[in-house]
Each structure stands twice: as C-alpha cells, then as structure tokens.
C-alpha cells in the first residue's frame, strides 16, 4: 500500500448470461470497502436479486481485512439466494489473504493465467480455436 491510498473504481456490467460483474480497481481497504459493499448490496435490489455474481479483482492493488469482509458479505448474500461469487483474477495481497485465511474455498476463483496455460478462454469467452473450428477452419 502506498503512502496515499489509491482510489477505488467500480464498474458494473452484465455478462451474456445475465450475471452481474463488478470490476474493482484500486485499493480495497477500510476506507474503500464500504463502497464495494454498498455496490454489491445494490445488485440484490428490492427482490431476491441475481443468484450469481462475478467480482473482477484483477486490478485490486491492495486488500486488507475490511476488503476481505466485504467479499465475505457478498458470499453470504449470494449463498442465501442459492448462488455463488466468482472472484476473477485475484493477485498479490488479495490472493495471499484468500489462501492464508482459507476462504478461497468459499468462492469460485477464476485465474486468467491458468486459463491461458490450459488453452481455455476465461468464463464467458469463446477461445479463438473454437471459432476457427465453427467456421470450418477457414480464417
């Protein structure tokens, strides 16, 4: 963490399957975690909300216990609705915190580096070789 906290930027989109995705960029700390928590709570809306949620954390530069708490709260809310939280691309401090605390097993963890090594595309994307095959191998 730097001397000056990096602001938190959130962007919410909806995947092709209707699953909301919140992209998180910056530091997830005691000063910014409430913003993420509020955004994730808003996804539920007045009804039951979506069952599954994707949180793209690949651009999180720092995470403390407050950030972890916001992610765990999202897990509890989606679990009550019968869904799951997918964490996309956790790196650095966040990845270590998830592993050391043992809570990584509560989430679906997508690692784009693993997908690239396996020749697979990240969830929701079609690998290029599949498009070639669908087109009869013609470019």
From TrEMBL:
It comes from the Bacteria. Residues 22-103 form the STAS domain. SUPFAM superfamilies: SpoIIaa-like (SSF52091). CDD domains: STAS_anti-anti-sigma_factors (cd07043). Residues 116-139 are annotated as: Disordered. It holds the Pfam family STAS_2. Belongs to the anti-sigma-factor antagonist family. This is Anti-sigma factor antagonist. It comes from Pseudonocardia benzenivorans.
């Amino acid at each position: 963490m730097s001397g000056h906290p990096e602001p938190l930027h959130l962007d919410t989109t909806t995947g092709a399957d209707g699953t909301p995705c919140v992209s998180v960029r910056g530091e997830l700390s005691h000063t910014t975690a409430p913003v993420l928590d509020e955004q994730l709570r808003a996804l539920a809306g007045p009804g039951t909300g979506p069952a599954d949620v994707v949180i793209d954390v690949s651009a999180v530069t720092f995470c403390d216990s407050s950030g972890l708490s916001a992610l765990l709260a999202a897990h509890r809310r989606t679990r009550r609705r019968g869904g799951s939280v997918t964490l996309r691309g956790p790196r650095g401090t966040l990845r270590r915190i998830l592993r050391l605390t043992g809570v990584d097993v509560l989430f679906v963890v997508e690692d784009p580096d693993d997908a690239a090594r396996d020749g697979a595309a990240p969830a929701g994307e079609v690998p290029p070789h599949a498009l070639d095959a669908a087109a009869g191998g013609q470019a």
